[in-house]
Every structure is written in structure tokens, then in C-alpha cells.
Amino acid sequence: MPVQQKALVTGAAGFVGSNLVDHLLETGWEVVALDNFSSGQREFLVDAARHPQFKLIEGDVLDRPTLDRAVQGCQWVFHFSANADVRFGLNHPFRDLEQNTIATYHLLEAMRAQNVKNIAFSSTSAMYGEAEVIPTPENCPLPIQTSLYGASKLAAEGLISSYAEGFGFNACVFRFASVVGKRYTHGHIFDFYKKLKANPRELEILGDGTQKKSYLDVKDCLRGIMKACFEGQAKYERPRYGVFNLGTTTYCQVSESAGWISSEMGLEPKLNYTGGRQGWIGDNPFIYLDTKKIKSLNWDTSMSIEQAIRGTVRWLAQNEWILERRQ
Amino acid sequence: MPVQQKALVTGAAGFVGSNLVDHLLETGWEVVALDNFSSGQREFLVDAARHPQFKLIEGDVLDRPTLDRAVQGCQWVFHFSANADVRFGLNHPFRDLEQNTIATYHLLEAMRAQNVKNIAFSSTSAMYGEAEVIPTPENCPLPIQTSLYGASKLAAEGLISSYAEGFGFNACVFRFASVVGKRYTHGHIFDFYKKLKANPRELEILGDGTQKKSYLDVKDCLRGIMKACFEGQAKYERPRYGVFNLGTTTYCQVSESAGWISSEMGLEPKLNYTGGRQGWIGDNPFIYLDTKKIKSLNWDTSMSIEQAIRGTVRWLAQNEWILERRQ
Fold first, then answer.
1. Is the peptide bond preceding residue A137 cis, with omega within 30 degrees of 0?
2. pLDDT less than 50: residues of chain A
3. What is the tens place of the pLDDT at every residue in B198-231?
4. Mind listing the pLDDT tens digit for each residue in B161-188?
5. Which among A141, A145, A167 has the least Cβ separation from residue B161?
């Protein structure tokens, strides 16, 4: 990486975003952090705020003047802000479209206006829907969208690749499996932890517990992002546009995960399953990504799913304030 | 089809939309036609307007109250309004997103509010980008979007399939090759015709003339749509969601097409190629759809590409007013 590069991180106070901010600062970047703190946590930027190379802009990714200001002078934009509430998308159908697709458009336009042309984007494995091919490669059969969240991220990918094609942007898109680890603020580990604090004797699990998921620790995730952005060009689908799955080479069942969480908390709850192959409408009962492409860049995970999940539980135990904050 | 069904057609004064309106009226439907006449032509609805089962609503697909009114009492919505200007998408990057994606969201919400749950949607083969597999099947490898138009249509598909999954909508999505025929108002035949009227001795052709395209006559296109919507359920990807390519089983090169157009006009112009494998940025040099799925419903084209293109030229010759209208 050239010395003194400057990056904008959107969603900088979020789970992955704030870890990325720390990582960039540690590796010599100047960082502009943008967040509206609607779901981001100020606590996650406390360390970063002490750094001389850090600047916070409190504002919204839908606000073009804010974006213009935030993007100015940057070489890279790490676009990590999102409405990440997959499960309740149907309760507010505009939210994913607005915050994930339309916001991405405004960001791309701000970048274009300021001649900032490098973008990394946090997409999602949810856009694979109920994948036909498992493990699912980046160029799997065109998936049917089963969630508004997945649809909104796929739409953002389409905008970004069109900007790469039409306006010469250089883009790396990352389709994450579920990411866990330090500053994890939503998802099943969070829900299970919270339920077990309220009632340590029983745990209700949505679905039949056989849903298979792949979990990646945020540290491994960030190493993958950096590899792909700065060493991955040869692996791009198009000259200026690369898509990379980021996940583990194994998966676990929700019932196993419930066991590890309980054990890490020193509990032995009775597990009650609500039944059905999906936890909720749009839930993908089997998410497992083919990660050959990112691995060809000499990347690998540094821990097992069990280690990643147990580590996440320990972080939650040390940061129980987050349970109150995120209802 | 049950007697006295009522359908909303959006983009009803457009090329495909107005042909669909006529077809629905001829086959016993009650039709609500919605158009804002930004690119639709009033002349295209002159015949329909004489029909007692026809009602016109002049309004915009982005206007929710208009949509609520238009959708009321319908069993089906044929969503055919679009910004169909693929080539100049980069000149106004918000237009495709707004008119193709966001408009579809508003329409789906109006339908949900009025409990109208059947939708047919005109998507596009442009969303296949530069397809890896040719002929391209509906479940081809996940394509990289190369145009804002394709990206906006794929995004709309994602919204529609999410509504099928989450809200029990019943949806048929059609990925068209280029459609030609009666009331054809834009595309290369239109451009070539216009250029040849201005200068019958020479014709400038964008690209090297080897771009391969598949053209479908609008009548064949409409027969396919009706087959898929009302006989296609068994072929759906998901219980309530089906995607169908609509195209011919052959393709032609732009240079061949230029020859047929010239010959139909009684001209022998010198053909001047601007060069390059694409006509413009985002142009897909080879579009050829795998149509096995729609054919399995006992559908086929009734004419060759040459016949379809020559017929289109004859329609343009009889309706030269459209050349002035569409700049």
C-alpha cells in the first residue's frame, strides 16, 4: 500500500466497519469515518478517535452534500454502511432498497463527482437465495432473490459493476457469510446470548435447528478484504471489477452453534425448536460459500467456526452494555 | 382465462405495452392503461380507446396515489413501463434506478395495499451482461452487470421475487431479446431507418458490424407472455415465481440486419463501420437466449429474424410520423 493513503469508511461505527477503521489506522491509512449512528455505536470508535489520522463525519449516506464532503481527497471508499436487518425486511419494505441500493447510488455519484474511483463493498451471501450449488461459487447459477435484503445488495452490486464498466471505477465486492467476532451486534449468537441471559434453563430456536450456516471471524474477514483489494487484480471477473466470497471452508448447524454458545456461557439449557426448515421467511436454510477464489490469493481462515463463535460469546460477556443498546 | 378479468398495463402507450393492451382487449380482458406519455405515444392507444372495456389513466408509475387507483380491482398487473434507453444510461445515471427499480417498488407496494398479487414483468436480456454461456439460459452463471439499464431491471426482478417469497405474490418475469415489429420506436432498426432517410447512400454502423443479436417480433413475444402467465406454473423456479427468456432460436449480425433494412427500403448504401466489438459502452456484442423453457410450453416463433426486421421496416415506412416524434 502506498504511504498516506486516505480512505472513507461508511458504516464506520458498525460491527465490520469499526473493525476496518481500526485495521486501516493500524496499517498507516488516514481514515474518514462516516456514520449516522442509527445502529452504529459510538463506543466502537473510541480507540480510533484517539488516532491523529482519524476524522469522524456524523451524517447519512443518503445525504449527498455529506457524501461529497466525506469522499473528498480519498483514494478508496470502503462502503460498509447498510441496513443489515435481513429477517425483518418484510416489515418495512422500503428500508433495504433505500439504505442499501439508493444510498450506494448516491455514494457512487459523490465518488464520480470527486473523481474517487476505488470502492470496496460489503455485499452478502444472502443474495444467493436458496443456492442450487453448494458450496456456492461467485459465478453460481443466477439466484432467485428470497429476501429484500439480498435483493437490495445484489442491486447495489449491479450499480457498482455498471460504474466500473461505464465510468472506469475499480471495485471489489465481498459476499460475506455471517461475520462474527469483536463488536458483533446482531444475529443468532446475539439473540441466543440475550435469551439465555433472560432464561438460562431454556432456549427457543427458530426452525428445526438443522439450518446450516458458515461463520467467519471479522479479523479473517478483514484480511480477506485487504488481500482482494490490493493483491487480487488478476482474479477479477472484469478488468476493473472483482467479486469475492468470504467464508469458512466448513459450516455448522444452528443446533451445534447453540451448544457452543451455551457451553461458553457455562449453561445447559433445554433446546426448544419451533420447527420448519427455515428460521423465518427468506432465511436460507443452507449457506456455505465456495472460497477457492479468495484462497487462491493465499488467504485462509485462522480459526474454526467453533472458535469464532466462542470468541464472540466471550466478547458479548465482556460488553453486555450492547445487549441493552440493541433491542 | 376466466371471463371478465381486469388487468393493469403500465407503460400502456409504449411499444410492447400498447400491443399488449390490444391483445388483452381482443381476448376479453378489461384493461386499465397507465402511461405518463413521456415516451409513450397517444396514437398507439387510438384503437384501444374505442373499446368499452378500456380505461386510460394518465399518470406516473412513481406516483403512489395514481398507482393505488390504477391497481384497484385488477387481478393482474402487466408491468411494462420502463426507461428503455440502454445506450445513454451513463448520461443520466439516476434514471434507470428511478424508473425501473424504484417505480417497481412503488407498484408492488400499491399492489400489496390493494391485495392484487399477480404480476408479469418485462425484464431484459441486457441483465445477462456479456454472458459466459451462449445461448444463455435463465439460470446461467451469475452475470456481471455492464449497463445501468440491465442493473436496474435485475434489481426490479429481485424486488419482485422477494415479494413472491415474502408476500405470496405470483410473478412471471420475462427477459426479452430485442423486440421488434408494429409500433417499434427505438433501437437499431429505428436508427438505421432514420439515417437512411437522411442519407440513402451511406450508413454509419456503430462497432464492427459483427455484434450478434436476436430479434423477436412483438406478436410472438406476447404469445409467449400469455403462455407463461397462464400455462407455465409447472415450469416456475419457485412455487410462485417464474423467469422466462423470450427470443428467437437464431441470431443475426448487425451487418446482416443493415442489409435487410436497406433492401426493404430499396436502397444499397455503403456501410461504414466505426469499429470495435461493441456499438457503445455496455453494449453486449453477443445476445442469444436459450429459449428451451418457454418452448417447453409449446411456444415457438412464427417468423424468422429477417421477416421480423423487414416487417418492422414496413411499419416504419407506413408510420413515418414516429421518426419526427422520437428524437
1. no
2. none
3. 999 999 998 898 888 889 999 999 999 999 999 8
4. 999 999 999 999 999 988 999 999 988 8
5. A145
Residue A258 carries which side chain, given as an amino acid letter?
A
- For residues B6 and B55, give the distance between their C-alpha atoms in angstroms, rounded to a whole number: 11
Sequence ranges of the domains in chain A? 6-179+216-246, 181-214+249-325
Residue B234 grid coordinates: 409447472
Residues of A with Cβ-Cβ distance to B152 under 8 angstroms: 158
Strands across the sheet containing A241-246: A54-58, A30-35, A6-10, A76-79, A118-124, A170-176, A241-246
- Give how far B200 is from chain A: nearest CA, Å: 33
User: Please, which residues bridge with residue B179 across strands?
Assistant: B216
**Residues in B touching A140 (Cβ below 8 Å):** 141-142
For the record, the C-alpha cell of B321 comes out as: 410520423
Whether residues B151 and A158 touch (CB distance < 8 A) is answered with: yes
Superfamily of domain A6-179+216-246 in the CATH hierarchy:
NAD(P)-binding Rossmann-like Domain (3.40.50.720)
**Closest chain A residue to the Cα of B94, Cα to Cα:** A105
What does the alpha-carbon distance between residue B185 and residue B43 come to, in Å, rounded to a whole number?
Answer: 12
Residue A84's pLDDT is what?
76
- pTM for the whole thing? 0.94
Three-state SS at A301: coil
Neighbours of A323 (CB within 10 A): 15
A285-311 confidence digits (pLDDT tens)? 788 999 999 999 999 999 999 999 999
Tell me the chain B residues in contact with residue A167 when contact means C-beta distances shorter than 8 Å. 90
Would you please indicate which residues of B are annotated as catalytic (active-site) residues?
A: 149
Between B146, B157, B167, which is nearest A161 by CB? Answer: B146
- Amino acid identity for residue B10 in this structure: T
Q: Is A149 a catalytic residue?
A: yes
Superfamily of domain B180-214+249-289+297-325: UDP-galactose 4-epimerase, domain 1 (3.90.25.10)
Distance CA B258, CA B261 (A): 5
Calpha distance B60→B54 (Å, rounded)? 18
| The pLDDT of residue B327 | 59
Domain A181-214+249-325, CATH: 3.90.25.10
CB pairs under 8 A between A and B: 129
Question: Would the CB atoms of A282 and B166 count as touching at under 8 Å?
Answer: yes
Integer Cα distance of B156 and A148 in angstroms = 11
pLDDT single digits (tens) B128-142: 998 989 999 999 999
* Residue reference for cell 416456475: B236
